[in-house]
């Protein structure tokens, strides 16, 4: 009986506590930098696409919401011909970001993606590609890769020796 | 002729006010529950979220009114009407103010007890007609809870009847002119409140419904406005029990300065809020525990209270 009265009293006192609710549209929650929200494709410092169309994100995706087609330009640089994410399937697990070898695909702190038409949730490459380097500023995959694809010549990259002339006997 | 017109008008006004308040209680309950759970509750539709009631009603009206093919059709349709009707009938004897009441019966208290226990028929019939094992279990619980709690509900009131010497509710109110019966009959007040909560099937005594055990108990199969009727009946029941507690133990309309109706409404409102506070704070007892409390603890206390009150009345005379 005492415990009953005590719990009634305690519940009554909760009336004067601070509310837990965040009045959403007017008041917004603080989203942390690592929040996994809307997926974007970032660019390298020179403004080129980072994505090399390796399909690793599509392979890692547990709900198969990413589809893309790789192609090459005249310099042999790979890029996606199309890149499509179906956000009505996406579960925002972030595996694509983990799988990406070139830091191209990234998740951002944005969740306000509501649509009235389901078809509008399918984002094409022009919707995904942003004019930013995202979480890794200054990184350019083709500058550290061994391959020459129009960004730099062979052996001219960062921490890279010029190629050895294998026909010469001089060390 | 004039008399008939006056009473018809009174009935219409009371009916309209009660159903409006019962609907508005949905909003009040949600806001108060939220308040006690550190939330805000519905606050978007209209001022303070008051229009949520309108939205809820429109929603209920447009829901599919489905009758399961395995149900006992006639009884299934009829059952929800009983609870609202029985509770509304009890309001016939409730004295809201000296001149605002429908019928000042000389057996008012008995009439209230009879009508409020009729409400259980809607639970039993609704649960049985649904032809669903959970509904039937809920109905069974409702019936047994009603039987055990109805006994001391009546017994706890007999002390008040002894002191006031009348079953007429206006006489009971007038007998509290100097001292409220809650002071002279505190045990009876606690017992009556407990029985009243059980009577309205509110938490913590909502074992016929017990949504964590029996889906939704006796109204598992109900939808649309039939479900709404059960709901309205429940809220009307809260108003009724609060009004009766105020009438019998807290001096009804009596009070200084303010007009009688305002006093009655204020006191009733406090008890309605208390009902909601109980829902926010107390867990539901087990079915067998509820029965045990009823028969082994509360009934002897009620009898003892009656005995002591009787002895005092005898000694005073």
TrEMBL record, chain A:
It catalyses: a quinone + NADH + 5 H(+)(in) = a quinol + NAD(+) + 4 H(+)(out). It comes from the Bacteria. Signal peptide: none annotated. The keyword Iron-sulfur applies. NCBIfam families: NuoI, PRK05888.1-1. Belongs to the complex I 23 kDa subunit family. This is NADH-quinone oxidoreductase subunit I. The gene is nuoI.
Automatic annotation (TrEMBL), chain B:
It catalyses: a quinone + NADH + 5 H(+)(in) = a quinol + NAD(+) + 4 H(+)(out). Its EC number is 7.1.1.-. It comes from the Bacteria. It holds the Pfam family NADHdh. It is a multi-pass membrane protein. It is found in: Cell membrane; Membrane. Keywords: Cell membrane, Membrane, NAD, Quinone, Translocase, Transmembrane, Transmembrane helix, Ubiquinone. InterPro entries: NADH_UbQ_OxRdtase_su1/FPO (IPR001694), NADH_UbQ_OxRdtase_su1_CS (IPR018086). The chain crosses the membrane at residues 7-26, 74-97, 109-128, 149-167, 179-198, 235-255, 261-281, 293-315. Belongs to the complex I subunit 1 family. NDH-1 is composed of 14 different subunits. Subunits NuoA, H, J, K, L, M, N constitute the membrane sector of the complex. NCBIfam families: PRK06076.1-1, PRK06076.1-2. NDH-1 shuttles electrons from NADH, via FMN and iron-sulfur (Fe-S) centers, to quinones in the respiratory chain. The immediate electron acceptor for the enzyme in this species is believed to be ubiquinone. Couples the redox reaction to proton translocation (for every two electrons transferred, four hydrogen ions are translocated across the cytoplasmic membrane), and thus conserves the redox energy in a proton gradient. This subunit may bind ubiquinone. This is NADH-quinone oxidoreductase subunit H. The gene is nuoH.
